[in-house]
């Protein structure tokens, strides 16, 4: 009895698939690894080019120039505080609003949803928004980082759509047992919404961490409220415009390092310093990211 020869199609497919995935991984990781190598390479040597995945002249002077003066450390904790507080409050309030408009028995859910969605497409502009912040007495106040982003229309829609996929019987059973809306929300809805909440938390945290323009507009005159991204932006802008070291731009004396720190090396160091905290947090939320986004964006 003749045996069938093994088919080549699966082996060819898996080989091709692995090759494509490896190529995509290399293309994705190379810019970050190259930036990391440039950040640890001497600035005057970086100008020559030819830095790929490993520093040619190793130095930590780029990072010393960034952290010279001590303002970066205070700005780091301000960024951490605004990111944590804004993420927690935004998740809590947005999820409560999403639960409210997801209930079919709530007669105003459609008008409220329409009004919220309209804010995604229409706004008064930057100048009216500035005067609104001024009238709320939030200028040069820490709450200017928190209050404007408490509710996000997009995040509310994602969470609401996810909640609508939950079995209705769970909520009905809770009501039969005498649970009110608050007990149902905290004891049943929130635990079941962990994937989508983790996804939205990542959105909010990344947005808050990377934000610097609100500091420039509303808190630039108060140094104690300066954030990490704003300080790094000033440092990078000063370095690029004056073609000098970041530490010299901040008033520090690094005479020997003047030839070691260049705008190109400062740019790479600033990029790594700004992205590292998010890279540390992301692996803990990644398992929820795709799952939560898929379930929160499509309703069966």
Topology, pairings included?
Elements: H1 9-39, H2 43-46, H3 61-67, H4 71-102, H5 109-118, H6 126-135, H7 153-164, H8 168-176, H9 181-192, H10 194-210, H11 213-218, H12 228-242, H13 246-249, H14 263-297
Helix pairs in contact: 1-14, 3-14, 4-7, 4-10, 4-12, 7-14, 8-9, 10-14, 12-14
Sum this structure up briefly.
With about 300 residues, the chain is an all-alpha fold. It has one domain (about 70-295): MetI-like fold (Orthogonal Bundle), CATH 1.10.3720.
Give an overview of the whole structure.
This protein is mainly alpha-helical and 300 residues long. It has one domain: MetI-like fold (Orthogonal Bundle). It is built from 14 helices and no strands. It has helices spanning 9-39, 43-46, 61-67, 71-102, 109-118, 126-135, 153-164, 168-176, 181-192, 194-210, 213-218, 228-242, 246-249, 263-297. α3 crosses α14, α4 crosses α12 (228-242) and α8 packs antiparallel against α9. The longest helix has 35 residues, at 263-297. The two termini are 50 Å apart. Residues 244-259 and 296-300 have low confidence and may be disordered.
């Amino acid at each position: 009895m003749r045996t069938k020869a093994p088919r080549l199609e699966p082996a060819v497919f898996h080989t091709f698939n692995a090759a494509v995935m490896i190529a995509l991984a290399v293309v994705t990781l190379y810019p970050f690894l190259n930036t990391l190598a440039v950040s640890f390479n001497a600035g005057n040597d970086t100008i020559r080019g030819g830095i790929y995945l490993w520093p040619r002249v190793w130095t930590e002077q780029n990072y010393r120039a960034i952290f010279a003066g001590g303002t970066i450390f205070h700005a780091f904790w301000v960024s951490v505080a605004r990111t944590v507080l804004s993420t927690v409050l935004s998740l809590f309030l947005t999820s409560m609003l999403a639960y409210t408009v997801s209930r079919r028995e709530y007669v105003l859910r459609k008008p409220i949803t329409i009004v919220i969605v309209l804010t995604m497409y229409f706004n008064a502009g930057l100048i009216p928004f500035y005067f609104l912040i001024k009238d709320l007495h939030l200028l040069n106040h820490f709450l200017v980082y928190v209050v404007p982003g408490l509710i996000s229309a997009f995040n509310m829609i994602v969470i609401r759509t996810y909640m609508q996929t939950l079995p209705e019987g769970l909520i009905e059973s809770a009501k039969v047992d005498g649970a009110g809306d608050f007990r149902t929300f905290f004891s049943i809805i929130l635990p079941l919404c962990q994937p989508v909440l983790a996804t939205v938390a990542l959105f909010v945290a990344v947005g808050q961490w990377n934000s610097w323009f609100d500091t420039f507009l509303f808190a630039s005159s108060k140094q104690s409220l300066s954030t990490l991204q704003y300080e790094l932006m000033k440092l990078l802008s000063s370095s690029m415009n004056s073609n000098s070291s970041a530490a010299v731009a901040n008033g520090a004396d690094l005479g020997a390092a003047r030839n070691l720190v260049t705008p190109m090396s400062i740019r790479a160091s600033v990029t790594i310093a700004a992205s590292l905290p998010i890279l540390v947090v992301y692996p803990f939320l990644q398992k929820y990211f795709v799952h939560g986004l898929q379930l929160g964006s499509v309703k069966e």
